[in-house]
Amino acid sequence: MRSATTPLDVLVPGPEHLAADPAERRLQELYAAGPGPWVRANFVSTVDGAAWGPDHLSGSINDDADWRVFRVLRSVADVVLVGAGTARHEGYTALDRPRGLPGDGRPLELALVSRSGRVPQQLTEGDRPPLVLTGAAGARTATRMLPADRVIVVPQADDADEVDVRAGLVALAALGLARVLCEGGPTLLATMLAAGLVDELCVTTSPCLVGPGPSRIVAASPAGAPGQEQPAAGVPSPPVPARLARLLHAPGTGTLLARWLLR
């Protein structure tokens, strides 16, 4: 278990020093969502751009500073959105609100994006299964594994078997899940960026290098790559402009935590 005791310095718009706070009140203020429906993505990357470590898991490149912000982002979200393959590869289970942090009392939902409709076995066995955003073919598979009210069918207009992520976000908002936190993977993030669906991107830069091999945090990975079962990714064109809203620094390690506004 990571520790939430690592101090942080706010460099932008700072300066400000954030001592350890079990309730993370100030961090919640710094990461408050924008008005209305809000889509935030949160990723970790090494200095040389890797989205995961030698074990193909993102947890091997994060640290205690990243853990503080990770918990806060989940505490202020309504739903965590993730590709089904990433959920399977990273070992996602049913989500709980981070302990000790203020919240609105509602459970934190998990929503999977899956063209195939396949749901990781560990997520079908609990009392609160995930929501699944899928197309027509995937819905037939998903409804064999989950209650029908947990399957959201959002086919694309030109291909009913593909997932319309934009329509999925609208459907989640209609369920009261307007504050969306996307946690991966890189192909799903690429798809959402290309469609202009991301309001902000939070990126932790971990002070290490892992060399060639791992994907970037925005990448169209080849079939069979670790954790990939997302829709085919597009490429943002022209490049998406980003405005730095927050930059935090962990003085003990050099870890940087940036909050970039994209709209």
From TrEMBL:
Species assigned in the record: Isoptericola peretonis
PANTHER family with a match to the protein in the record: 2,5-DIAMINO-6-RIBOSYLAMINO-4(3H)-PYRIMIDINONE 5'-PHOSPHATE REDUCTASE, DIHYDROFOLATE REDUCTASE FAMILY PROTEIN (AFU_ORTHOLOGUE AFUA_8G06820)
Keyword Oxidoreductase on entry: yes
Protein name: Dihydrofolate reductase family protein
Keywords tagged on the record: NADP, Oxidoreductase
Span of domain Bacterial bifunctional deaminase-reductase C-terminal: 37-214
Pfam families xrefs: RibD_C
InterPro entries per record: DHFR-like_dom_sf, RibDG_C, Riboflavin_Biosynth_HTPR
Pathway: Cofactor biosynthesis; riboflavin biosynthesis
This protein's record includes keyword NADP: yes
